[in-house]
Every structure is written in C-alpha cells, then in structure tokens.
Amino acid sequence: MGEDPFGVRKGEVTVELPQAFDASLYYIGRIRTPWTRREDCPKNAREAQALCTIELDPRWAEGLKGVESCTHIVVLYWMDRSRRDLVLQVPRHYGEQRGTFALRSPARPNPIAMSVARLIKVEAARLSVIGLDCLDNTPLIDIKPYFASTDAISEAVVGWHQPRKD
Amino acid sequence: MGEDPFGVRKGEVTVELPQAFDASLYYIGRIRTPWTRREDCPKNAREAQALCTIELDPRWAEGLKGVESCTHIVVLYWMDRSRRDLVLQVPRHYGEQRGTFALRSPARPNPIAMSVARLIKVEAARLSVIGLDCLDNTPLIDIKPYFASTDAISEAVVGWHQPRKD
Questions:
Q1: CA distances from A115 to A75, A118, B52, B87, B135 (A)
Q2: A21 to chain B: nearest residue by CA?
Q3: The complex's ipTM?
C-alpha cells in the first residue's frame, strides 16, 4: 500500500541499540524460494507448501552426513533486511500491540528465523524442503535434526493467538 | 576423562573457516542454570527438568508483552565456547561419525542452540522456564513464541537415532 514495510507503525516502540555487537555469524549458504517480494511470501510456514532449495556452501557439505535420515530439519536463517530496534510491534494482520518476543516477526534484536521444514531430498550440498516462507536468496545460518522427543509439543498454546469465543 | 572437551577426536574432520564474518549478534540477556561445568549439564533437553531463569537485558523488557500467554517458548542461545570448524563429529555417547548438521552438538559454524522450554513465570525481565540444558551464564540471543501448528511435528524421525531392532 505504499507503506514502508521496514518502517515504524503507529503503536510501535523502538529502543536504542547497544553500542557494540557481541558475536558474529557466517552465512553458510542460501535459501532459494519462489518469492522475490516480501508481499508474495506466505503469511506463515503452515501456508508454505512450495518446494524450496537450501544451497549449502560446498565448504560445509560433509556436515550433511546423516541428515538424509531425517524426515524434518530445523532451519535457522538470517532476515538481513529487518530492523532490529523494535520492542513493541503492531503486526498488520492482527492490529494489536505486542512484544517482539511474543511474535515471530522478522524484526527483532537478532533477526534469526527458525522454521521446521520437511526434508524431501539431499543431493550433494543441496537440500529440497517444504515448509519455508522466506524471500529468495535468504542467508542460511544453521541446519539441525528435528527431534520429536524434545521439539514437538503438540499441546503448546500461544494464548494471545487463540481463536476468540465470540 | 582428562580429554580436552573442545578438542578434535579421532574420526572428526575440520574445515578452514571463512576469512570474514557476514553478520553480527547482540547478547540480549543471560541464562542462569544450576550447571557450571559442561560435564554436569543434562545430556539433552528431555532430561533437563531443573528450573532455570532467563535474565533479559532491561533494554528489551517491553518486548515480553504477551509472552506470558505462551505455555512454551523457543529459546535461542549462543554456545560461546564451542569450536566452529568441525564438519564431521564423533559424539562420545554414540561413537559414530556424523555430519555436524545431523547433530545438535554445540560445535557448528554458528554455535546457536535452539531449545523449546516450558514457561513457568514472567516477572519484569525475568522468565522462569523448564527444559534448558546449557551452562550457567550462557548468552541469550532470542525468545520466540512456540506455535504447535507449525513447530510441533510429532511424527518426525531422525533415522540414525532410531532404536536398533537387535
């Protein structure tokens, strides 16, 4: 709608960022998706049914040994275009003010996204997956095996997100 | 056993790290746990039943608005003492060589751990949680709401970790 997608909306609050960083990351690959504009990305991972490709830097390819035995993986990636100073946000599709740590918004002090993806295929340093919703060419920072025993909490509730009874 | 816990074991393989970093992190708080030595930490999050405290930097405290409505949160933290150049590892308790991305080992190019924790209480910038297994004083890098709809995959399998039939 012409609104700056990286700007600050009414009701949103920023803080002053720390003077210095504390640690540093390597991009270890790129995520290739069908979406090149933010407004085209699926609203959330549940709606993300497109096949995406994770292109791992060949330097790290040996690190995939055993990954092919996983049905699902945890993918961490870096949302490099997000602002990092928002503490209170008003997501457009909810319209209510919430804390950054109560949201999965890309705007956060460390713009790391976590998605659980279904692993379809591994070929050399390329993984085909379903379940990602990020922009094409998003930097990859980690891949982990998903363990249902510790990672799957089917009874978990996000209270503010529950359907209203009225 | 006197072995350097941060060293390289037989069967493990390292790569040359990239010349430069690509992005930087802020520590946004600290995780207080009962474990001050690596050998005292629980072997995995399923065994981690102790009450731990997440101390968020007061700068970010407003970002917790709404978090109290979550039963579970995703906690990302930085395993600052881990080596980052291992691609193949031989975890002591399995004894077989596997790729870094098939393991939840702290040694990885970007030593970010992801744990799902049960939220017990939020008081100002302190969260009481159960389910973390890290060393006391571990740097916190993110907190996210855990959505069962996208994060809980109870049928997920890590093939190499399945119990053997014999």
A1: 5, 10, 25, 22, 25
A2: B26
A3: 0.93
